[in-house]
Hints:
two-stranded antiparallel ribbon; mainly beta; globular; 5% helix
Amino acid sequence: MKICLVVIFAALSLTAQSNKTFIQAELSKTIKAKSAKPGDAVSASTANAVVLPDGIKVPKGTILLGEVRAASPASLAISFDQAELGGKKTPLSLSIRAAMLPTGPQSTVAAQAGAVIGMPGVTLQVDDSPQHASKFESSAKDLQLNKGLQLMLAPPE
């Protein structure tokens, strides 16, 4: 059963980043850190429609395209750089702000930037640099981001 990110991540948009525009998306395929390489394609599908601060309209169901920027068996740095809009690839910059593995019945969880919900031992370092490659790190040696992982994305500050 999927958990609604609007409820889960509502607190994220009400924190110090209250003027931030967030995109909710779902990871399209599983990424295994031990076999991932920099440059590997990553994609996610948007769960909500938004208008980004630069005026780009991102409809619900838009495919976001990105890549693995760095990988080791216990970490993955990922950025999203394009959206498929109107049959064309449109450049954009999005960093991952929080993530949640939907595993149980719907519940309300207060999230904050860098939160990784439902993945014990996994942390997220949010990157607002021009590279915007937020980094997942695991205390175990077998980090895996499963298909369906819910992501909260935002343009770098």
